[in-house]
Amino acid sequence: MESFLNENFGAVKAKNSPDEALQRWRDLCGVVKNPKRRFRFTANLSKRYEAAAMRQSNQEKLRVAVLVSKAAFQFIQGVQFSDYVVPDEVKAAGFGICADELSSIVEGHDLKKLKFHGGVSGIADKLSTSTTAGLTAGSDLMVRRQEIFGINKFTESEARSFWVFVWEAFQDMTLMILGVCAFVSLIVGLAMEGWPKGAHDGLGIVASILLVVFVTATSDYRQSLQFKDLDKEKKKIDIQVTRSGYRHKMSIYDLLPGDIVHLSLGDQVPADGLFVSGFSVVIDESSLTGESEPVMSTAESPFLLSGTKVQDGSCKMMVTTVGMRTQWGKLMATLSEGGDDETPLQVKLNGVATIIGKIGLFFAVVTFAVLVRKMFGRKLLEGTHWSWSGDDALELLEYFAIAVTIVVVAVPEGLPLAVTLSLAFAMKKMMNDKALVRHLAACETMGSATCICSDKTGTLTTNRMTVVKSCICLNVKEVSKAGNASNLCSEIPDSAVKLLLQSIFNNTGGEVVVNKRGKREILGTPTDAALLEFGLSLGGDFQAERNASKIIKVEPFNSTKKQMGVVLELSDGGLRAHCKGASEIVLASCDKVINSNGEAVPLDDASVNHLKVTIESFASEALRTLCLAYKELDNGFSAEDPIPGSGFTCIGIVGIKDPVRPGVKESVALCRSAGITVRMITGDNINTAKAIARECGILTDDGIAIEGPDFREKSLEELHELIPKIQVMARSSPLDKHTLVKHLRTTFDEVVAVTGDGTNDAPALHEADIGLAMGIAGTEFQLTVNVVALIVNFTSACMTGSAPLTAVQLLWVNMIMDTLGALALATEPPNDELMKRTPVGRRGNFITNVMWRNILGQSLYQFLVIWFLQSIGKCVFGLDGSDSDLVLNTLIFNCFVFCQVFNEISSREMEKIDVLEGILDNYVFVLVISCTVFFQIIIIEYLGAFANTTPLTFGQWFFSIFVGFLGMPVAAGLKMIPVDT
Q1: pLDDT digits (tens, 9 = 90+) for 726-753
Q2: Pairing of β 309-321 and β 272-284
Q3: 736 noted as active-site residue
């Protein structure tokens, strides 16, 4: 089975799978009872082709637009008068430009139109907004703005109603065939025996079909609601916007044309717009244009497109086009709901369903042939083979219905959906732990991880930073305690304080604002916020410092340079550069330092040693260190020139505390006990990284801590020897992270490395493990039912010429197995024991030896019970008379169902004997089991005419429950048999 799965389904990956492989998969799933159900939450290939075609068309249009805009810029002075006329409804609403004109300007990179409308400032006037204060919130104009320009939301397909899921459940081919059988049975039965007796068999099948359909639809509908909740969480994206003069966070879906949006490194552009102001802005437009080369966004080329990413720099953007009018919106319109590629486990489960479906079809055909042969043999002995009655026709029809129902039971249609449901529940639980995973495949991958490469900030730490120590003018001071900051001001010269505040308040990506409530608020990254808070505690005034000089150049911080710089034009006309960043890097660019007298003196060996010892001291206390420096520049410096990399004067060093998250050390220990190696990758210096890694329990005595520059110098042979021992990588670049992960994949078997994006902490991994484990547990349970149901009906047909389980009974068993069982096992609560399992890689055997042991052992027990009843059941229970066969078959059916009930409980744990622990914590599981038992009683005692059953005695009920319960100690005994994992 594993070789078949790998051969036919191995090409399907968790993402970026070739379309040919996906199509081949769909073609290979030949025994698909209901493709609409099976492929509901997978990629829609036809829509994908449409999206690809549209993306290619967009790429060509944008390439042409960029080329034309470059050419137009050279002849901009020769712009001709445009014939554009403002539509009356736009003019009446108070605007001077319409949505289509705005869209054509930005989408077409049309500099001529932009020039005609007065540039960015002219567009702002026509949109009734301000490039500094933004829109005026709460006015009637906001409502009219929405009506004219629309809202920043993409058109989504309407949520499907419950009845749509009912209709899809009816699309099952085998259920349709059973429906036809039921109709024919109803007609023949009424003709032969009249109403109501002749309708019992047909109506029984119809009722069973309706029950299966509605329960299936209910499960699928609930699953769709789960995904709807997940989609809502995924779309909760906030961005900083200036409105009514106040800068604050708001949802990207509340943006309107005229809004002033603040963009920084890593942000996705939320709407089409125009560059207002900023520095060194580099945009990655590959998502739209297909071009890997990033583009600069400047006042001369101010066009910003929705869906692109800020690769470097920061800026303010004025929104011009929102929602479906943007290029990204048009592209999103072609994407289907649930368009993700299949997860590796879903691929294998569909493969398993296909294989078992073909086996089931074979058994169904053979069973039908055996039953028909036995019938012909009986009629030959009786001499009635030339005379056929309506009863014979009904008997043949029942045999055919049994054969079809065997296919229904054999194909575990719910397997892929069970895993989808399991992973969706896991993702929901992870969101409650503040860990957002956007794709099912990522959730599943995390559940199989053997190595975690974790970021530090915000993942292992709280990402709430505070300056706790400083070394200003060579004077080390603790500043975290109340009053220490003011004491620091009194101990260093005023000139040094002035330089320090100038550096903090100008060389930053953050901002100090007054919110609507009149309270001061600090915006920006945690590092910037910590420095700004430090500057305010020193008595600084953010706005006063900003107004005292003019910023003429900014080189934003990025993970490669490890520093940020600005150039200021001072009030006296001079130019001064400020730099801050990783202490070792910035200090290496300094040749002077401010001493205790406030004078800039040469940086001698003693001062260098003092600063280096201070950096190491701060770092050993798990503090992130930043060095602040400045340099006076010549008046000949141009904004196009790079900021010099040497000749700076060190102002001082600050130590920032970012506390470790509570419970991280315990989580790391839990990962280690599960065979998962945790590595920390950070941009901090090595002493800080080592201190935090030890505090988290990541760095052990036999582990290695290395810096990115040293890592990059190693040869391939050295890397293969070194990487298994690396536990900490400091001063790393994005390239270092990718290189490490790549080598981890080639160094270890079945390694899946999860890089740090805030979703890889231990609780997230734990929930992912739960989802994966519960999906596999459901697989074990369903396969056991498959094996037993096939063998029982097949062997019985061969031995006795009849099938003990009728079509109606098999449909009820199928519902227990396929829908209710999947729902129960998919919603299991977290269990710490699961984290002690050794992870299994995506190329490992799907059905492990442990699963084979449990499936075959439990199947053998259940088969022996039913074989015992078939062989000597009548003798043991003293059954005789005309209804003895009916009573025996009812007893067999009842024992079979209770075996499944107790096996479902045993399947909660594949290796743990105590399967009752925490069972009451899962109300869904308890409810499913209770409903199964309740309806089984109703079917046996009250629905005999429809389900071909008869009421049982107390002793027979006790025996049914006892043999079912006996399956639990059998399962426990099986788990004690050692097997190779």
Answers
A1: 899 888 876 666 766 655 644 433 333 3
A2: antiparallel
A3: no
